[in-house]
Amino acid sequence: MKEKIKRIQKKVGATPDGVVGPETVAAIMAALGIKEDTPLVWPTQKEVRSGKSVFGAPGSNNLVRITPPYQLWYDGARVSSIAVHKAVAEHVQAALREVLEHYGLERISILGLDQYGGCYNYRKTTAGSSLSMHAWGIALDFAPEHNAYSKKAPEASLSRPECAAWWEIWERHGAISLGRECDKDWMHVQFARLK
After folding, report:
1. Calpha distance 97→71 (Å, rounded)
2. Distance (Å, rounded) from C-alpha 170 to C-alpha 140?
3. Where are the domains of the chain?
4. 82, CA 20 to 30 Å: which among 33, 88, 102, 134?
């Protein structure tokens, strides 16, 4: 698969590294005549679970570690890096940088945007028998203490108006919020559409 991606990257003028990141997506979009401000669209959950999407099979084979641009905390411990799928790594890094630029460290701390709940976890969904998007490393959880799976707006802290920019930043990178889509699991951001 990586060699096929490299061949495509060479054809569209992207760095032939076998990683489908923002540079490759931009080059493909340019080759297809798609404007840069066209929203990025990731596969659906069904496509991801089929194993035939850009994300491939679930598991740790496609993971890379990124260093967040601001200090994240997991249960009171410092997070030095996050394991994410290589196809979304640049988007996660860019989104977190934009969050830092928009909110600043003090506001990030006040809103709990520095409270990390995890990314890669080979497991089934909380409410079903299908694999979670976490099993591919394409879903991240933030501020879990105040955004439990069953919490709805406005009780969930990430549902409040002051967090609208947080979600808009992720959405610019093609990610979705289950909270904004379904009013549940407000901690969860994923790089796969529901339908």
Report:
1. 11
2. 11
3. 1-38, 41-190
4. 102
